[in-house]
Amino acid sequence: MAEPRRRSLRTRITAAATLVVAAALVVGALAFSGILSLSIRDATARAAETRAEQLAARVDAEGPSGVTELDDDIAQVLDDDGQVVAASDEADNGTLPDVDGTPVVTFDDEPMLVVREDLDDGVLLFAVPVEDDEQTLATVAALLAVAVIAVTALVAGITWWVVGRALRPVARIRAEVDDITADRLDRRVAVPPSGDEIAALAGTMNRMLDRLDAAATAQRRFVSDASHELRSPLATIRQHAEVAQLHPEATSVDDLAEVVHDEGLRMQELVDALLLLTRLDERPALQRDDVDVDDLALAEAKRLRAGGAVVDASGVHAARVRGDARLLGQLVRNLADNAARHARTAVAIGVIEHRGQVLLTVDDDGAGVPPGERERIFERFVRLDEARARDAGGSGLGLAIVRAIAEAEGGSVRVEDSPLGGARFVVALPAAV
Questions:
Q1: How far is CA 112 from CA 81, 98, 109, 116, 312, in A?
Q2: How would you class 68 by CB atoms within 10 Å of its CB: exposed for 0-12, middle for 13-18, buried for 19 or more?
Q3: pLDDT for 114-136, tens place per residue?
Q4: Which residue has the higher pLDDT, 172 or 392?
Q5: HSE-up (13 A, CA, CB side) for residue 137
Q6: Are strands 289-292 and 310-316 parallel, antiparallel or unpaired?
Q7: Cα 312 off chain centre by
Q8: How high is the pLDDT of residue 100?
Q9: Taking a C-beta distance cutoff of 8 angstroms, is the pair 29, 129 a contact?
Q10: Which tens digits make up the pLDDT trace of 264-278?
Q11: pLDDT confidence of residue 85
Q12: What is d(CA 27, CA 25) in angstroms, rounded to the nearest whole number?
């Protein structure tokens, strides 16, 4: 399929402006010509009527001979039968048409304006040539045509120049953006000092490039961290396999199987977490059901107690949201596991509905989270210094998953100081209506 021909915005704007101005000028010129024609014709008619009244008075006083003595005027006296009784020298070549009120007639091959005056005995016809009026109107029409063409051409030229000058920064911005590739996302577009829409466009492009740069940096860091996390269990499995192969007396099949099982489980959990984050990044349409958050919280409290943790669930009250039960269960479990991992002796879970929101709180009496780290801990593969060891647990994705799920469900998550002395995680979700 052939690519549609590109039409320059500069050309389209110039053509549109030129057509609008040309149409306005043509309409204005036609209106002016019409008004001028009526004005000149009306002035000529009034002058003719005045002269005809004077001649009619003269004929009534002197008789038809008052017309025959005229040299330059075109006048005739008709009797009641329409016969010419007397005529001036300029009107002796025929009979003037008795068409008072008709705009223009032809007499002796010349355009004439005829007026009629009733006499005591007969009718006076008086004609005025309008050839000079028509020549004046023709001259004015020619001047207007030249003016319309000249002004239209001037407008087209000015519009072409102004639009080209206005779009020049856009062309520069486009050229600069075309030169920005995936490995040069640190470059930015120069923002002109004009403070107009072009400057706003450049600022918008720079903010978009900032987001792309941040996303690319995060993606590279994510791939690097994921590779590192996956490399560790693989290296452990390979190390134990090599030891078992080179020194079979130093290990047993059971020991090797246990290592492979544990490291394989860790890899599976990591891959599952990565897949979940990838799915949430794509912002899929989530299932919407009524979910009792208090039931999820009580289930996690029971699970932690079964593992030997001290859990206070007295702050759990009935509360319901509309969301994906599986994802919300994952959110509560990640927070519960995080609290149990960092708690010294106790964990507290609470659920309450307040002002149209369901607030889920998970407390521990551990070391807490420093204020400067309370946003960073929700980034992927982030572990605080005290939790860097593998035995401290987690891959650094649990809290990132918590934030991703909370935001996908239309809520948020934050970290505060806990009344128990450690950290309090607060998840706010819209309550079910």
A1: 23, 12, 9, 13, 114
A2: middle
A3: 888 888 788 888 888 888 888 88
A4: 172
A5: 17
A6: unpaired
A7: 52
A8: 59
A9: no
A10: 887 887 777 777 777
A11: 80
A12: 5
- Indicate the burial class of 99 (C-beta count within 10 angstroms; 0-12, 13-18, 19 or more): middle
Residues 6+ apart with CB under 8 A from 331: 401, 402, 405, 406, 427
Q: How far is CA 364 from CA 138, 284, 302, 417, 427, in A?
A: 98, 33, 16, 10, 15
Burial of 191 (0-12, 13-18, 19+ CB in 10 A): middle
Q: List, as one string, the DSSP characters of 156-175.
A: HHHHHHHHHHHHHHHHHHHH
Rounded alpha-carbon distances, angstroms, from residue 386 to 331, 341, 367, 368, 369 = 23, 11, 9, 11, 11
Q: How far is CA 198 from the centre of its chain?
A: 14
| Confidence bin at 392 (pLDDT 50/70/90) | very low
pLDDT in tens, 331-358: 999 999 999 999 999 999 999 999 999 9
Q: Percent of the chain, pLDDT > 90?
A: 33
Q: CA-to-CA distance for 351 and 360, rounded, in angstroms?
A: 5
Contact 196, 169 (CB under 8 A): no
Query: Which two three-digit tokens encode residue 184?
Result: 């040069």
